[in-house]
Amino acid sequence: MSKLLAAIMLLLASAWPMAQALPRDAGRAVVDLIADHEAVAPGSTFRGALTLLIDDQWHVYWKNPGDSGLPPELIWDEATNVQTGEFLWPAPHPQPLEGLMNYGYSDKLVLPFEIQVPEDASGEVLLTGMAQYLICMDICIPEEAQVFLPVPVADTSVPNNATRADFAWAEQRVPTPLDGRAVIDRSAGNEWVLSVESDALNAALSADIEYVRFFPEDHQILHAPEQGLRKGDAGLALTLQEAEGLGGDGALAGVLVVAGTDKSRYAVELTAQPGSVISGTNDKAVGMTTGVQTPDSSAQLTVIGLLGFMAAALIGGLILNLMPCVLPVLFIKARGVLELAGHDDQSAVRRHGFFYLVGVVTCFLVLGGVLAVLRAAGEQVGLGFQLQYPAVVAGLALLIFVLGLNMMGIFHIGSSLMNVGSDLAAKRGGQGAFFTGLLAAFVGAPCVGPFLGAVTGILLTQSWLVILVVFLCLGIGMALPFALLGFFPGLVKSLPKPGAWMERLKQFFAFPLFLTAIWLLSVLGAQAGTGAIVLTIAAATAIVFGIWLLKTGSGENGSARIVKPVALLIALAAFVLPIVMLASTSQADAPVSSGSAEAYGEIWSTDRVTALREEGRPVFIDFTASWCVTCQVNKRTTLTTSKVQAAFEEENVAFLVADWTRRDKAIGQELAKHGRAGVPLYLYYPAGKESPVILPQILSPDLIVQTVQTN
After folding, report:
1. What is the pLDDT of residues 272-327, one digit of tens each?
2. 495, 493, 499, 359: which is closest to 432 by C-alpha?
3. What is the rounded distance in angstroms from the CA atom of residue 639 to the CA atom of residue 705?
């Protein structure tokens, strides 16, 4: 019996490596670790390779992913008993996406690397670890797979015929060294010329060419712009755009690819030294693309996918009514609904609901259109972009303050509220409902609810038509509760009848508006400093003075004709001047200062994240903005609590804050990389792991503590 058990154990042990070496389906790619030898001799060198069979329409990234993305990597376990080299990267393909340019691979990827067998090796050499990569289609998903490769050690190395085709695939695609010379000419400022002289390159250019493109190993140049192509008898020249703040004066390394219309690809690895354009490479322009054509992203979205977006947007619009930043404006609408309760004219009730719906939808369509235009122009924007401009924030604060004064009865627009019926029947009723819808949608759009975050991130990779359709559904969803009351007037009759209590309730609703104005002032201070707050408060005081002058001077005989225009001019000037003055500043594009980040975390940057992770520390990142109420609620109820801070300290977690209150291209790119179009976004990088954990947009202390203690 003991011999039988020993035999069974030996059989299982021999089968274990074979089972572990099988390919792993990680979700959207099948991952494998292979070797080009079945057996290896001590002291020899052989090759391994990470292979990815990628699902249709998905892609992974090159070692320089371009504007966004992460390259695949292998993280070896301690059990790995050999020395491994770096990946040999096949030449990448351009992956344009709405103003961005990424570099990567579709369908299949083989990444070879060298393995050195120790001189004293015996038994087997073992490679075991974790393959990690970011895989993207409309969204980007970090995936990982455990890999395991045992290779027996023998007296003589034995090639592996089963993997020969995979290594041949990589050999055909890994760039060859340039057989000539390359120069980078920076004499024209931020427009550089890459000049390449090569006989083999000239031979490749004589075929039918689809595109020619240079893929840089670093970020000295902008990735998205088209690279103007010229050629001559000696070679070719490409026009490159310097990346502001990243361009250098030294060498420029990368891969040059000539892609033929027959799917052939000639790829060379080069390092261009500073100098002047090589004679015979820049003689005439060539009318061909350089690989930046933008695909029809709407064609990638199925009908079912579009219907899913629309349904999600409709529900998300409903959820927006519950966001804290929308509630004060809805108080205005609630007052109008209560006024409807005493009205018998059903056509007026329907008109009120219709105009409110049109106001909300109009605002969302305009925001969607602006977003589509800005994204197409390469701007990193998302929902809430309108509150990243100090002039807009100041104007909105003054507007809400004036509305609060109106609801308090300090002044009246139109006839008295006691004459509700005539107001609703008149054109002013429709105008008021339309304006309320515009205001509610404008303030509500930055409150990206938990249901909307990922949806809007995916959405903004689509065509402008898809964006507008989904934003239309967002607006309909947000307007739906109040619109139903207008379209079904019978529901209104169940509401309390108007009376003296309505005036008191109207005055009560003014206080949330004043609080909203104060919140907007805090946002303005974070963007443009205390001077902007003082300017806005002074403007509010001047507006109140204009209203007081209008009320006190209009009753005097003969003076009304003079006082009324002066009072209106003062109020109008007080409203417009701060907006004009703040619009002339560059605060919206200024880099984020320490500001609010210092109060509860360290300021985020990609370099700081890299440095902390190289130290082996886990990192938690809070992507936030002072105008994002959901962010501020999470900050106060979770992130700054003693329980969470103690957990961070106990686990040595670095806490970084990426403040998007003002426009910041780096933060916008990081949000896009993780499939988000707005804040909040919460990332946790466990120590020693490449891919982050993406947390929900509504946090709790227990969730944070559990995340940092179990990852």
Report:
1. 999 999 998 888 877 555 554 433 333 345 566 667 777 777 877 777 666 655 55
2. 359
3. 10
The answer to whether 91 and 265 have CB atoms below 8 angstroms apart is yes
Bond prior to 680 in cis (omega within 30° of 0): yes
What is the per-residue pLDDT across 575-623, written as a single tens digit (0 to 9) for each?
A: 888 888 877 554 444 444 333 444 578 899 888 998 999 899 999 999 9
Nearest to 602 by CA among 641, 658, 671, 651: 658
- pTM of the prediction? 0.45
Cα(436)–Cα(426) distance, integer angstroms:
16
Positions of the chain with pLDDT lower than 70, given as ranges: 1-22, 98-99, 138-139, 245, 287-306, 320-346, 348-349, 371-388, 412-430, 440, 442-464, 485-503, 553-561, 584-599, 627, 629, 663, 675, 677-678
Are 239 and 228 within 8 A, CB to CB? yes
Partners of 109 in the beta sheet? 52
Report DSSP state, residue 131.
E
Task: Report yes or no: 478 and 437 within 8 Å, Cβ to Cβ.
Answer: no
What gap in Å lies between CA 541 and CA 575, rounded to an integer? 10
Query: Is residue 543 a contact partner of residue 443, using CB atoms and an 8 Å limit?
Result: no
What's the rounded Cα separation, in Å, for the pair 500 and 338? 12
Q: Which residues pair with 237 in a beta bridge?
A: 195, 230
Residue 693, CA distances (Å) to 44, 143, 186, 468, 659 in order? 40, 11, 42, 31, 20
Neighbouring residues of 89: CB distance < 8 A, sequence distance ≥ 6: 62, 63, 111, 174
- 104 vs 223: CA distance, rounded Å: 13
For Cα atoms 256, 260, 264, give the angle at the middle one, nearest 5 degrees: 85
Cβ-in-10-Å burial (0-12, 13-18, 19+) of 132 comes to buried
Residue with tokens 């990192």: 619
Any idea what DSSP says for residue 242? B
Distance CA 319, CA 148 (A): 47
Question: Of the candidates 157, 156, 158, 196, which has an alpha carbon nearest to the alpha carbon of residue 179?
Answer: 196
Please compute, for residue 249, the number of CA atoms within 13 A of its CA located in the half-sphere on the CB side.
3
Phi, psi of 431 (to 5 degrees): -65, -40
DSSP string, 360-389: HHHHHHHHHHHHHHHHHTT----TTGGGGS
**Contact by Cβ (8 Å): 237, 283:** no
